[in-house]
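Can't attach files on this board, so I'm pasting raw text. These are the components:
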Amino acid sequence: MTLIAMPEADPTVLARRADIVKELKRFLPETSIIVSEDERRAYDTDALTAYRQLPMVVVLPETTEQVSEILGFCNAEGIKVVARGAGTSLAGGALPAEDAIVIGVSKMNQVLDVDFDNRTARVQAGITNIGISNAVAHAGFFYAPDPSSQLACTIAGNVAMNSGGAHCLKYGVTTNNVLGVKAVLIDGTVVEVGGDWLDAAGYDWLGLLIGSEGQLAIVTEVTVRLLRTAEGARPILLGFDRVETAGACVSDIIASGIIPVAIEYMDKPAIKVCESFAHAGYPLDVEALLIVEVEGSDDEIEFYLDKITAIAEKHAPQSLKVSQSEAESAAIWKGRKAAFGAIGRVSDYMCMDGTIPTGQLPHVLKRISEICESYDLGVANIFHAGDGNLHPLVLYNMNDPAEMVKVEECGAEILKLCVEVGGCLTGEHGVGIEKRELMTHQFDQVDLDQQMALKGVFDPQWLLNPAKVFPLANRPKPAQTGQRVAA
Amino acid sequence: MQTNFSAELLKDPAMQASEEILRTCVHCGFCTATCPTYVLLGDELDSPRGRIYQIKDMFENEKPASADVVKHVDRCLSCLSCMTTCPSGVHYMHLVDHARAYIEETHDRGVLDKMMRSVLAFVLPYPSRFRWSLYGAMIGKPFAPLLRLIPGIGPRLAAMLALAPSTVAPRSALEGPRTIAAKGERTARVAILSGCAQRVLQPGTNDATIELLTRMGVEIVLPEGEGCCGALVHHMGNETASHAQAAQNVDAWTREIEGEGLDAIIITASGCGTTVKDYGFMFRDDPAYAEKAAKVSDLTKDITEFLEGMDLPEAVVETDAVLAYHSACSMQHGQQIKTAPQKLLKRSGFKVKDVPEGHLCCGSAGVYNIMQPEIASELKVRKVKNIESVEPDVIATGNIGCITQIGSGTDTPILHTVELINWVTGGVRPGALEDVILPGERKAGENPFLAAAE
Ligand code: SF4
Ligand code: SF4
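---
Top answer:
Structure tokens for the assembled complex are below.
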């Protein structure tokens, strides 16, 4: 792509590549080092494939000790590091750099300890999000944040991006559900942050690490909060003939004080594609669809569904349907969670991620379609309406260079709009590479300087995922190799 | 995903088809999570998305297949779990098939690997050669530990011997070519694929199918000239051989379709079913065969798919047996048949349990358990553990490869779904249950408590 530059690679590091590989072999097994170009190629991008960069080496450590050795080595040698979970980032969070070592945590995918009495689980960071819930489901528990990619994405990536998901409306995002982490600092020091309790003594270091996009430390173990699975849950489908009406209905539901587990929004193009994948019984003739899910005992579910129906009816929905069975509910969610991939059946897309005050929904949705129209690009909207987290998918042809430029500009305009109406640039995907240059719209230089000063405390040489998050201009000068890590 | 194929390259219809597949992949990574090799190895290179990416790079840059890429494509089981998971509808099967053929064209595998492959391709698709080699394997079995020490192919030879049964089943009395009349009024006429390996290893499966279907008024034809479906060589990238075998079957069935007519072509090994259902695609650019092959694929049904909508004969045997149903990858992913076998078994009176991690392959995957013994045996252990966690009295499945693979890791009897259905509805007792009495086994209608007291 065009607008977003990568920093220049360090030629002295590139020149030492063969030696670096040799060194890595001292503390890593053969199967954990990926060297050949053919093999590195598969690691050159994540789920934001518009950006690609072949990394210098990829390593897949199996233990915290190995991660510590690798980081200690990189720090001493001044080699950049990009951490990778499952590579499902839609913001390019795992995009490699030419002179960087990619550290993938995918081999560390075990559950270490489950404590049902205290409702916690300790897992290795490379386990998938759903892997945690699967491991405790038999006892009636689950891990709450549920990004749409939960089948594949790792808890490591969730921690790095402070990921959310459809059900975060009720349960909060990653930071509200992680109790502690074991993390490795850039000099190889292994630290434990947080613990088995809801709020640790002292500063909220955990709050700092969660969402730090692999720029402060590499997390290798995570202790999560487990929740009791609700007795039951049922979604209701509300179809509207106007986008704005659906938006108004969301605002009303939230304003009424009810907190459903999820309020999801899909527009017409999205409904059509998702229905053909999941056969969920979505209404095909409406302009906008809301999936509202409530949970609890049967009585509770009835009570809330009645209230929501009453609110919806004020907006004269075109269709209103309560799921009648578990199979139907599963299909409804399958369609929603697979939505991004399913859109891939019809077109390439750029998935945006911004958050706005829910009261602004009708206005913003209208503006988004105007913006896309002005660029002559299609758009499908799928998002977490309940917490105002938008995911417009701007449709384009990736094989057409002119459209690549257009989509990037169009996306930037949409995100700026989110900031203008009092929202923010990112919802749950993080800044990554995608929104790096837009950060100046959200923060002034004073704010950014303070944030970067903090990064410098953890990582004085700026070795950890350095190309991301902060605009390239006005960055502090990194310390030279050999200076002590202050953290 | 963005692709970069030259116009020249896209003139090749196979490349064009692959390019279209690659364009639908959005690189979301969902498929990695349900891929058995990724789950075991934790390396994206051994995941569907990673393989797709390597294949794309190889194709669009017109690179001969490198040893690295070959390693990761070879490790793919073709279980197609990724296709079930993919929200974007990426046709991984056609892509990897193309990649395998491309590898055979552009990569030199070395003498030993090639020899191993030629031997398998020479023996397995041909029942009499296969039967003779099994006698050989019986003699060779004690030498497996020694063979394992041969560098290069030792572990594969040992794996092959370990899989061979310790006795060779006698030939079926019902071997084709022949026509077997329906009992009573004829309601349908079907061909049954006799196939290759299954016919030698488990002749009871097709015998039971014939017994059951004829009792249900179906006339059976085992046509002249049919043979292996071609899957075995197809998965080794040998397109010429697989197309020749497929063409032979298309011809054999077309003669029947145009002659007395066929209502269905019944397959009792889901691995073969996946391949035969793909004949239409295989011959899409062949004017002489395209139409005939598409017709054949259309008529092809797994035996459980065929039985699903029919009334089964009344049950004469009842049991209280807990049955673990192992859905073969070719059944659930390849053919997307997800409920028919379980429903039929329930209708036949079994307490059917699904197996945890049911989407993961058992490691059989054609000749995979011979070519990749380490991964295959890890998958087998994992599968058996999952099956045994539901404490079954008997295991049912729909594919001969899984029967051999899982059977070599458990003492619980494992057999084909149709053998059980045939038995409880009045057919012959399955060979696998010869020395086993299932819990609560009794004549239908008999009081279970009295039966147990006897
Ligand atoms: S799930 Fe489908 S679209 Fe996503 S990476 Fe895998 S093959 Fe590509
Ligand atoms: S076919 Fe099976 S082994 Fe091969 S990539 Fe797909 S899921 Fe993995």
